[in-house]
Write a structure and sequence with these properties.
Elements: E1 8-10, E2 13-15, E3 19-21, H1 36-47, E4 52-53, E5 57-59, H2 79-91, E6 95-101, E7 115-116, E8 119-120, E9 135-137, E10 152-154, H3 157-176, E11 181-186, H4 191-196, H5 211-214, H6 216-228, E12 235-240, H7 251-263, E13 268-272, H8 291-303, E14 307-309, H9 316-324, E15 330-333, H10 335-339, H11 343-350, H12 362-371
Parallel strand pairs: 3-4, 3-15, 4-6, 5-6, 6-11, 9-10, 11-12, 12-13, 13-14, 14-15
Antiparallel strand pairs: 1-2, 7-8
Length: about 375
């Protein structure tokens, strides 16, 4: 029986354990280019024992960023900065994954932690702002949370096809940069999720209306990437599988769509929320430990491909149980990974692994195991009883 620390092989790539770091937007890039910050921050998580590490959603075009300070891979000159990051991740034994995406109508944002013009961030810069840009989506429908209220350009069919070419070009650059795992971001109210959701997609052509038509953008983007992405590397996808609204995406829709994607060469699915509306009634199940992993288990069983998910998996026992119970194959951690770059080591200790420090680089491991003395002498909290 597999557990949290069992290796996992997907295609020609083997993860040393089932612990992955979710893409977490850091707002530290300049013109889409990564820098020393990303090498430090992501290298620390690789050294801390994670098996799979995603930097953040990486934009396929400049206007696909969330904020002006988000990462991109729309130009060849950006490849070198990504290569520095993937080299550091590999050096410490983890697999470097990239999440390609486009924020659609949710782009041109002020970072939520920033204060601009006297206002706390999270709002949308107007198109004529020096750091803003016009946003686009499947339809001319703005997001409804009060922070995204500028005009949305409805993409033409020709523009849609151009974006598919941009996905493919970004995937080629990702392979050149040393990434060995690619995830396409079709969740969280961004462009792929917008096409998939009737809340954002009001089109009456081949990209709107029926579930099959609303999934067309996603499938064609997947096809474009599949043509250029190395066959030996996993091609995966994060899907907005539930809008939390009666008129939005329902989970059964997501199961059907993942089945179609598997037929188009998808190797693994990552289940998440749609977030295509701020009008989401509070649902108690959203707060349960591993609630999305439990849902992913249905997809794993019915579609027959490996699964991963995040959401309320920050306690080692919950994460381990989600793998042991065969709900998911990889546990993704977002804020827990930010809070603790050595989360895998902590989890190994909590779960009673015989040599928890073997996840660390050899020199760190040697010092800790030979000179640790009382655990508190090196700053370790006692293991929970």
């Amino acid at each position: 029986m597999a557990d949290l620390f069992s290796p996992l092989t997907v295609k020609g790539v083997t993860l040393r354990n089932r612990i992955g770091m979710s893409p977490m937007t850091m707002h530290e890039s300049v013109d889409g280019t990564m820098n020393d910050y990303h090498v430090m921050y992501l290298g620390a998580r690789a050294a801390g024992g994670f098996g799979l590490i995603f930097p953040e959603q990486v934009a396929i075009v400049p206007e696909g960023r969330t904020t002006p300070d988000c990462a991109g891979i729309w130009a060849d000159h950006q490849v070198e900065s990504h290569a520095r990051v993937t080299s550091m991740i590999r050096k410490f034994g983890a697999v470097a994954g990239i999440q390609l995406g486009h924020t659609g109508r949710k782009g041109s944002e002020v970072a939520k932690h920033d204060v601009v013009d006297g206002h706390q961030g999270g709002w949308q810069l107007p198109p004529d702002h020096p750091r803003g840009w016009p946003v686009s989506g499947p339809s001319a429908v703005s997001y409804d949370d009060g922070h995204h209220d500028h005009p949305v350009h409805a993409l033409t069919v020709e523009e849609i096809r151009g974006l598919h070419r941009s996905y493919a070009d970004a995937a080629r650059r990702a392979a050149d940069a040393g990434y060995q795992w690619l995830e396409m971001h079709f969740a969280h109210g961004y462009l792929g999720a917008e096409f998939f959701s009737p809340l954002a997609n009001h089109r009456d052509d081949e990209y709107g209306g029926s579930l099959e038509n609303r999934a067309r953008f996603l499938l064609e983007a997947l096809d474009a990437v599949r043509e250029v992405w190395p066959e030996e590397y996993p091609l995966t996808m994060r899907l907005g599988s539930d809008d939390g609204h009666p008129d939005g995406v329902q989970f059964d829709d997501a199961i059907t769509a993942v089945g179609w994607m598997a037929e188009h060469g998808l190797d693994l699915a990552d289940m998440s929320m749609g977030f295509n509306t701020g009008d989401m009634p509070d649902r108690p199940d959203f707060h349960r430990p591993a609630f999305m992993a439990e849902r992913a288990a249905r997809v794993r069983k019915e579609v027959g491909i490996p699964m991963m998910s995040s959401w309320n998996l920050g306690l080692p026992a919950d994460a381990d149980a989600a793998v042991r119970d065969e709900w998911i194959d990889v546990v993704l951690l977002g804020t827990p990974a930010l809070a603790n770059p050595h989360w895998p080591v902590w989890a190994a200790r909590e779960l009673g692994r015989e040599r928890p420090f073997e996840l660390l680089p050899d020199d760190w491991q040697w010092w800790i195991e030979h000179f640790r003395g009382p655990e508190q002498s090196i700053g370790l909290p006692p293991v929970a009883s």
